[in-house]
Amino acid sequence: MNRRLGLALAWTAATLSLILVLAGCRTHSQRYGLHELGVAPQQVHEIEPLEFKKAEPNEAPPEPNRPPEKVELSLPESRALALENNLQLKTALISPAIAGAQLSAEEAKFESSFFASANYIQSDLPRGGAVPIPGTTTLLPIVQSSQTDRLAEDLGVRVPLRTGGTVTFDLADARTEIMYTSAPFNPSFENTATVSLSQPLLRNAGQWVNTYSIRVAAYNRDITDTRTKLEVINVLAAMDRVYWRLYAARRELQVRQQQYNLAQAQLDRARRLVEAGQRSQVEIIRAEAGVADQLQAIIVAENSLRDRERELKRVVHKAGLDMQTPTIVIPTTEPDPVRYQLERPRLVSMAIENRMELLELQLQLLQDASAIDYARNQTLPLVSLDYTYNINSTGESRNESFDMLVGSDYTNHRVGLQVTIPLGNEAAKNRLRQSLYTRRQRLATRANREDLIRQEVLNAVDQVEANWQQILAARQTSILNGRLFEAEQRQFDQGLRTSTDVLDAQIRFANAQSSEIAALANYQISLVDVAYATGTLLGSAKVEWEPIVPATDVE
């Protein structure tokens, strides 16, 4: 009865403990996630509406306390700032450090390790026996107590081998005391020195297989370096494109402001002629409509200019020049419309040699070849050879036991062979097939990538030539439309043209100037695209990048 009651109480206590543990886990989990960030759950599950304040009809925009500052930046200065401050580039430059740490971690897989353990065992076991009844030959069965105190200590060194095996050096020490016995040594001391070797013979055997993870980490490090270089080229090429777009936007605004002044001058001219009675009142209306059109063009140009300035500020990311500042950025580098002789075969060869995408594919092909060899090794049976050599000793004291150990009088040798052969081995075979298929796919990808790079280079070269022709055509159009505008103004003064004719000529002149500016900027951008297509940078400046290694508290 007492036994049943004890089992029931133990079962009840275990059940209550499990319930408390589960309840504690649910409560404890609420301390993580959003709670750590100080964010209420409602902020995730509820979507707030956005309301705008209605502006007053005659409310003017607030005047700033001081006019925006102006910052003049040349193209080399913009590149230097982008290399120093660009957040996207800083993120990419940390990746080589991560890959290097991963490689170092894999190289450390063959480091030796020290191990130690200590165990104390106190046991009191019942042992059956029998004693004779005095005066008879009958034996009386009794239960005797067998009490033992044992303290065992063990320490050693485990050395992994590049061949896949492991060598272990082990020294064990034990003290055993048995109560109620008449053993020769009580307490007794035992020591054992062990040297063991375990070596696979087929699967996982050999230095090439066991250094596979190190090779993979080395390939990944080199792949990361190629991607980082490509990211540097991307940032600098994007910087050049943004710079020339900003130049075009600022020149476009200047053109629109100039045309607004010309439209205002035409309005003043029309008013004078109307007041003199030489023109009808409708000429003033036509001229005012032209001024309104030019004002609208200025608004559009200013908005485009602000967009380009924010884009450049984002790429440069200079302190005190973030996207929210009203600072005006003025590009000082002028385009250099020089026609270049671009040799298509040489540029294609440079692209095939310099493009980081192709180098990354070649490294991945090396990685695939290594993966195939490793997967082929994993299809072999698992055969392991084990050898153990022991030196044993015992004594009434620890010194006596160690003296016997040094003498090596009692030794053991054990040799074992273990074989494991999977039935069918389909998992390993399919992993090998997967590696072979991946390499075949990568080879096809490389050929396709080479064709795409050739096409990209040739398209970029053709675009340079087309943009050069556009510069010549736009400049000629701008000159002719400027002459036409002047002729229309003279015709208006003589009463042969209306303000509408003059304004139409003025608009065509402005559009021709805008086309010329766009052609100049597009020509510079197309040169950047040619350099990018060949895996190089435009200009004579050489860029050498180094990875960023963040400071840590790890020694």
Description:
With 555 residues, this protein is of the alpha+beta class. Among the domains are: 165-203 and 385-420, Outer membrane efflux proteins (OEP), CATH 2.20.200; 214-368 and 433-533, Up-down Bundle (Outer membrane efflux proteins (OEP)), CATH 1.20.1600.10. 57% of the residues lie in helices and 18% in strands. It has helices spanning 2-29, 34-37, 42-45, 75-85, 87-107, 207-210, 212-275, 282-316, 344-354, 356-377, 398-407, 426-493, 499-533; strands spanning 70-73, 113-132, 139-160, 166-178, 188-200, 328-331, 382-395, 410-420. A six-stranded antiparallel sheet has the order 2-3-4-5-7-8. Helix 5 (87-107) packs antiparallel against helix 7 (212-275) and helix 9 crosses helix 12 (426-493). It starts with a helix and ends in a 22-residue tail after the last helix.
Give a quick set of tags describing it.
Outer membrane efflux proteins (OEP); 57% helix; alpha+beta; 555 residues; elongated; six-stranded antiparallel beta sheet; 13 helices; two-stranded parallel ribbon
The helical percent reads: 55-70%
Strand content: 15-25%
CATH superfamily heading of the domain at 214-368 and 433-533 = Outer membrane efflux proteins (OEP)
Mean pLDDT: 84
Q: How many helices?
A: 13
Tell me, what's the shape?
Answer: elongated
Q: What is the fold-level CATH name, i.e. the topology of the domain at 214-368 and 433-533? A: Outer membrane efflux proteins (OEP)
| Major beta-sheet overview | 6 strands, antiparallel
Spatial extent as radius of gyration = 43 Å
Low-confidence stretches: none
Oligomer: single chain
Assign the CATH class of the domain at 214-368 and 433-533. Answer: Mainly Alpha
Number of strands: 8
Distance between the termini: 63 Å
What CATH architecture label of the domain at 214-368 and 433-533 applies? Up-down Bundle
What class would the helix/strand composition place it in? Answer: alpha+beta
- Kindly report the spatial arrangement of strands forming the biggest sheet: 2-3-4-5-7-8
Q: Which H/E pattern describes the elements?
A: HHHEHHEEEEHHHEHHEHEHH
